[in-house]
TrEMBL record:
<dbReference type="GO" id="GO:0003962">
    <property type="term" value="F:cystathionine gamma-synthase activity"/>
</dbReference>
<keyword id="KW-0663">Pyridoxal phosphate</keyword>
<dbReference type="InterPro" id="IPR044639">
    <property type="entry name" value="CGS1/2"/>
</dbReference>
<dbReference type="GO" id="GO:0009086">
    <property type="term" value="P:methionine biosynthetic process"/>
</dbReference>
<dbReference type="InterPro" id="IPR000277">
    <property type="entry name" value="Cys/Met-Metab_PyrdxlP-dep_enz"/>
</dbReference>
<dbReference type="InterPro" id="IPR015421">
    <property type="entry name" value="PyrdxlP-dep_Trfase_major"/>
</dbReference>
<dbReference type="GO" id="GO:0030170">
    <property type="term" value="F:pyridoxal phosphate binding"/>
</dbReference>
<protein>
    <submittedName>
        <fullName>Uncharacterized protein</fullName>
    </submittedName>
</protein>
<dbReference type="GO" id="GO:0009507">
    <property type="term" value="C:chloroplast"/>
</dbReference>
<comment type="similarity">
    <text>Belongs to the trans-sulfuration enzymes family.</text>
</comment>
<dbReference type="InterPro" id="IPR015424">
    <property type="entry name" value="PyrdxlP-dep_Trfase"/>
</dbReference>
<dbReference type="InterPro" id="IPR054542">
    <property type="entry name" value="Cys_met_metab_PP"/>
</dbReference>
<dbReference type="Pfam" id="PF01053">
    <property type="entry name" value="Cys_Met_Meta_PP"/>
</dbReference>
<dbReference type="GO" id="GO:0019346">
    <property type="term" value="P:transsulfuration"/>
</dbReference>
């Protein structure tokens, strides 16, 4: 997704460990990170237009401040320059936010939290085009890690229950 010599832009308002990974680990792989404010659309546009950005990565809503990024606008800006858009939709879940429909190229979710429902499993999921997901699947197969069917079975009914409850609360 982001090759050696590539450039990733992310937001300052994101999960601390994610930000630390981007700031400290990715440069060791030859990837340049830039951090911007989640609401700085003009700043994003300037960076994308002038710096050959491979990927824009953000959470929406962000963690911990719950800022919602305008995914449609960000996607339009990035796609004009060939920049991929990756959204971490963990807090919103796929039931409440359709980032792919808004223009994102990839959506990642931590299934450890809301989706898993029990906070006792380490899991994640990724959605996107067949081409992008196939590239990721190759890396995943090399690195390993598969969720057991029991954990999936336990989490699904709880997710439906929580979503129904949230709908009533609205």
């Amino acid at each position: 997704m982001v090759p050696r010599g590539g450039h990733i832009v992310t937001t300052t308002d994101c999960y601390k460990e994610t930000r630390m990974f981007i700031e400290t680990f990715l440069p060791k792989l030859g990837i340049t990170p830039t951090l911007i404010d989640a609401t700085d659309i003009a700043g994003l546009q300037a960076i994308v237009n002038n710096h050959g950005v491979s990927m824009f990565f953000t959470e929406s809503p962000t963690n911990p401040f719950l800022r919602c990024v305008d995914i449609k606008l960000v996607s339009e800006i990035c796609h004009k320059r060939g920049t991929l858009v990756c959204i971490d939709g963990t807090i919103a879940t796929p039931l409440n936010q359709k980032a792919l429909a808004l223009g994102a190229d990839l959506v990642i979710q931590s299934a450890t939290k809301y989706i898993g429902g029990h906070n006792d499993v380490l899991a994640g999921c990724i959605s996107g085009s067949m081409k992008l997901v196939s590239e990721i699947r190759i890396m995943h197969n090399l690195l390993g890690g598969t969720l057991s069917p029991v954990h999936i079975f336990r989490g699904n009914p709880l997710m439906l229950f929580l979503r129904t409850g949230h709908g009533i609360a609205e």
